[in-house]
Amino acid sequence: MHVLPKSILLTLSFVSASVFAAQTSSLCPAQSYEMALRYQQKSAEVMALQLQTYRLAQERFDQKVSQLSAPEKSAVVLDLDETVIDNSALLVRDVEKCHDYTQWDTWDSWEQHGNPKLIPGAKAFLDNADSKKVRIFYVSDRFEKNKAQTIATLKKLGLPQVSEQNILLDTEPKEQRRQKIMHDYQIIMLFGDSLPDFAAQFKPKKSADAQRQLVTESAKHFGDDWFVLPNAAYGAWSKYDTDAWKEKE
């Protein structure tokens, strides 16, 4: 019997695995999200970034509040999904079923019956803000029809100031919701995983270069009154083309 050399066997094994992976990916396009989800849900690095963000935010928050004569007339505004609560379990479930979660057709059921976890650092920051008498607003694009379920979810997680008035869901653009808050409160901090969580100028349909230029122009806000949480699972950025290194011949 003729035995193939080990090097050839290894090469064939690698090629077979690559072909299988390519075939699997073509049969299940949703699997292209798998590495991003693994990073978002399981990496200690994302956890460190989340803790780091809220820790630095709390230090800055305490500095700001110490200079306020009426903290109760100030507010912090936070997005919910991937900012305060972690929905990655839903996204992983969808990928395992070969379903593209960016169609957002499974989100309704998740809002009603899901059990998201807290983003590390979020509750400690919010409890501190609550203790300083600062108003907390949760501004999210979750479905308004599921508001009661969202309130129940947040209360179950032990978050402060969870009420009908303090939770503003997807009834109008976020900028309009922020403007309504500003009628009665001074917003001293904003939190989100997407740039439109901070200002209307960050339009999702703008190019990557345009968005990055806006970030440069707004640099003074980041780490002062704007705090961004990492989200590798979804976002407007996922539609952008990437740039490859072109080696000189």
Automatic annotation (TrEMBL):
It comes from the Bacteria. Keywords: Lipoprotein, Metal-binding, Signal. The keyword Metal-binding applies. Residues 1-21 form the signal peptide. This is Lipoprotein E. InterPro entries: Acid_phosphat_B-like (IPR005519), HAD-like_sf (IPR036412), HAD_sf (IPR023214), Lipo_e_P4 (IPR006423). GO terms for cellular component: cell outer membrane. It comes from Erwinia piriflorinigrans CFBP 5888. GO terms for molecular function: metal ion binding. NCBIfam families: lipo_e_P4. It holds the Pfam family Acid_phosphat_B.
